Fold this sequence. Notes:
Layout lengths: L9 H20 L16 H17 L1 E2 L2 E2 L2 H17 L4 E4 L5 E4 L8 H17 L12
Amino acid sequence: MKNSAILREPVQAKQALEAAYAQCKGWLGAGGAPLRLKIEPATRSLQANARLHAILKDVAEQALWMGRKRDVDYWRALMVSGWMVAHEGVMPELAEGLEGERFILRESTATMSGARLAGVMAYAEAWAVSNGVVLHAPEEWK
């Protein structure tokens, strides 16, 4: 069982919490595994998530890095790393992995605030446009 909701105002929040309680009550009453309730600030909207993925998908489909096509996850890491250096003056930490490999420790886009994510998206869009990537229009974001 997994359920989440964005709580926007008191009446809607009460309805969402009552619905969650109804779902939990049956589960727990039937001897289901313990459940965890986690309440935290929303990190980004579904629209922002769709926009970021669309930008990264366009870049992955149209651009090369170091002479090769890269997937969306690779481009996400590159864009976050580049944004951190360009806009925050912070070099991401380069760590040694379990087998002696090197990898970058960076902030996850899933936990970024809306403002930080907007910065990464603006950086990615600017990079894409300056490197000949044609970005899809917002109505095409899926």
